[in-house]
Each structure stands twice: as C-alpha cells, then as structure tokens.
C-alpha cells in the first residue's frame, strides 16, 4: 500500500531537497537570462509571426542546425528565395515584412505560409513554423498547411473563469466524436448540444481531448504535430474560444489534455527535424525515440525547448482561457525507461535513483510552479501509473506540484473483475483496497472508466455487463432480462462506489454516464475509414422507452447529491464493513453513510450498520428507484434512528433493510444521509 513514508525517510527527503534546489537554480537562471519566467513564458508573442502596431510582420524561428531560412507563401507567389531570414545568436532567425503601400499587412489573414530550410548538407526542406497558431489540411491532401490566422475582429471572451471547485467532477470529452452523426463534429456542435448536457449532469469541469493539432485523427490527439494550433478539423480558433467562454458562463472549468511527453514523428507538418537535424527540439536517436509510441521525445535540458513548452502552456491559458491541464504520459517523462517493461510495487528505490529523468522532472516542477503562481485557480492533473511519491505535493515541499493524479488502478480493477469473476466471487476487501490505496495527502481523480476503456480492443463497462443484449433488450416496454437487470444495477453501483470512495475528484468519459453501447474506433485503414464507432449516440437519450435515460438520470443525481454534501472534498472514507459472505460494503464520508449490497441473491432485513454521528437518517439517493431503472422496493419516507450501541469501530449503529427481489438476479444499493437531531 502506498503511504506517506517519504516524509520520514532521510533518503527520499534528501532527493526531494535536491529536486527543489534544481528548480530554484532554473528559476534563478530564468531571472538572470530572461528577466524572469513571466517574460520567458510569453515567447509566443515574439516567435512565429507577430503583427506589429504599424502592421509590419515580424517572424522569428529557432533552427540551430539550419544553413539558411526563407519565408514563402501565397503572399509572394511561393517564391522560395525572395524573403530570407537573418541569422541571429543562439540559432535564432528573424525576418521583418513591411506593410503594403495601403498600410495593410503583407500577409493576408487565412493565407498559406511555409518556412524554407536550407541545411548544411544542401537540402531544401519545407516546414511549418513550430509556433504556428492555425494549420489546415485540404480534403485530398495528407499534409497540413500553415495558415496565417489574424482576423480583423477576433472573438473576445467576456465571462470570467469559474471559481476553483472544492469537489472536482470532470467530464472527459472529445469534440470530434460528440455527435450521433458519422462525421467529425464541430466546436459549435459541442457548444450548442453537449455543454447543456454536461451542465445538467452536474459536472463542473470539462477535460477536452485532442485539441492540440494532430495530423492523424485516429491517434486520439496524442500524436501532436502543431502544439500552438487548435485542431482545425472541428472549426476555427474563435469557435473554440466561444466554446470555452460558454462553459465559463455555465460555471464550468475547462482543462486541456496537454501532450508534452512526446511529439509526432511527422516531418513536413510536425516538429520532427524542423531544422534538418535529428535533434533540435528532441534528443538525438536513440534516446529521442519512444519505441512503443513511435514518436519523438523532448530534450527538457534545452533552454529553447523549455521556452517552447512553457510558452505553450501559457498560450493555452492566455489565448483560449483554459483553466488548467491534464498532463498526458507523465510516467514516460519521469523515467529514462519510460515505464516500458517496468512494474511498480511501491518500493521507494523505484522512484529515487538514476532511472529518474532529472531534466523532465524539473520541467514538470517548473511548469506547475509557474502555472500556480500566475493562475492560482489553475488545476493540473497528472496521468502517472507509477505512483511517484510527492507528485501531488507542492514544489516547496520538493513535490512536483500537481493538484491531482489519476487513480489509474481503479478502472483496471473493475475491468478485471468483470472479465474474470462471477458475481458471487467478487472480493469486497480487494475492491476496497484498490479504491483506498493512494498516498495520504495527495489528491486523486477516481474513475470507473475513461476513454482508454472505450477504445477498440476493449469495451465500456456497460458493454462488459450487458454486451449484445444492449442491441435488443434496452426497451422499457418489455420486462428486463436478467442480464439487463444485473447490468443496469451494477453500472450504477460501480460508478457510485468509485465516486464516493476512490478519490478527491471524479471523472467520467463522454457518453459512459448513460451506458453508451459498443466501443470507440476512429476511421483508419483497418475499418475502411469508417466513422460508425467514432461518435457518441446522444440520440439514445431522447428515446423515452429506452433505458439509457435512466442511467443518465442516476449519474446526474449522483453528482447533484455530491454537490450538496461534498464527499469528494472530505477526508477519506471510514470503512466499517466489507463482509465477504454478505457481499456488503458500508462506509461513511462527509457525514454520509453508504451501504452497498453486491450479493447476487441475498436481501437483508434489520441489517446492523455502524454510524459515527447519532441522530435520524433518511434515504437521499437510492439506485433501486424506478426512475433509475430499479425496482422501487424501498420506502423513502422511512426514518432510521441510531442507537448508542458501538459497532464495527463506530460509537453508534442502527438497523436497515436492504431489499432484494428473489425472483430476479439483482443487487441493491442505497445511500443514507445523516441529519443531526
């Protein structure tokens, strides 16, 4: 079990002291060389292309291995040599284009550009600026083009950022699949049709995937080609700004799924070999290659790479007004072995030693320090499977400074259970261990399933539970089959148990809240470029006689109940019962008592449960209610009174009924809220 032992270990404390000293050294260097991190992280205002007050255009690139740079495009009829850059110190190149005679910029809005790179070997290469703010692809082309984005009337966001919530409920979403149609959905569609659903469901944060431009759609956005460009396949930058502004008007924060762990190997429309060399932004091969991801790995020790990546974070915060980031692939960044072929048992020797990539670790500390200093309400989430100690402790403590880490073992446990075990073989203690096995004082985002579990080759929880019967037996006009009945009840119980016990935040992937059928598969050669599985069938919710809306209603009321009582912001749950024979789990958190009966055949009358606070209890959420696809067997007018009878580690206890219909294969769960006398 991961613990807080690192606080008392001389070795680990020493390691974290060194980490903090390295961070301080880097901050001092930034102050000396760049005037501080504030200026350094605004380099998106000087690199790429910038329109000056007199409408001249200033171009700047970093290409240390290049022999010469030229600018070409629609503005000069694609002349390859008429507009050379001037070489500056430290591998930088600059060019100024004076305005036309009518004082308008020399390059029109929405016209194409290219950087022409001449290498020392005599090659002539055509590249997109790494700082390009907008790139597009013509329908019959496979290569993206750099498009100058400088509208006369850009969208101005008007709504302030929402206040940072104490209980974080994240809706993980992908704009392109956010429609029932077999096509790529748009930012506008998301704003109009999806945001209202998210608001209704009670989520207070959206995690947007696949926003950073990626040439290969089926990469799910994790093979980034243009780091400063919002994906044009969904619409324009202004339409994304409207989406975020609208979310803010609803009180919903928006996180960007940022990929700084690696980059696409694309050359013509990516960062790879920008200046003709094997390195530039990356380590040279083989260190600069990720064998499993077939991608390039950043050189975090490079000053200009730090400028690029840190300015990239600042760009998304300032230009689009995102509220924070989910950092992808943190495990790969933290270790030289990138987590490949390596298991993590929790032993501290796995986290402190030569296998740790010191440069990337300092980069993550630097990123979190800068973000939280400039934007106190910013939220950062780490995707780390290793369990790195102090990942979510402040940098002043020697931690990496993240607010949350993803509790990645939880969805794996649920999938393992559904794949391998019969209902009667579920191990209550093992489930509780997985849900509570986290480092004390480091906040976790719990989730039963994310986009990973929905991908082709795997199945969503709903599909594991109900499989092919979802095609024929989800109608409420016919009696529930045993498979559908069991599937609906377990779908709700798994999600509530994860929500209430698994962390200090909760995440759901788009569509899974209502038991989205099938899996997720993007158009590719292997499926004849089909969009059939690259969509979310929200239309199923609008059909009253299908049971999907019942799961939706439960997810909504689960979030609303949490919003009222705040168990995610409370200390970890106190588990008073994990009875293997009865398959019952009882725990309390935030003065809310949770009772789960996972037994496939048993109901219980007068079942004694432990409670902390004496008084009168009433049911506040019950998954067996008819509107949630249950059987309505509990009387919600019943009041439960505690007795001063110690039980299972609590000073008080009371008796409750956990109903069961013996003619059905079902499970019953109820949530009781304490009301002090």
Automatic annotation (TrEMBL):
Record InterPro entries: A-amylase/branching_C, Branching_enzy, GH, GH13_cat_dom, Glyco_hydro_13_N, Glyco_hydro_b, Ig-like_fold, Ig_E-set
Enzyme Commission number(s) of this protein: 2.4.1.18
Positions of the Glycosyl hydrolase family 13 catalytic domain: 165-547
Pathway(s): Glycan biosynthesis
GO biological-process terms attached to the record: glycogen biosynthetic process; nervous system development
Keyword Transferase: yes
Parts of the chain that traverse the membrane: none
Short name of one Pfam family: Alpha-amylase_C
Protein name, as recorded: 1,4-alpha-glucan branching enzyme
Highest classification ranks of the organism: Eukaryota, Metazoa, Chordata, Craniata, Vertebrata
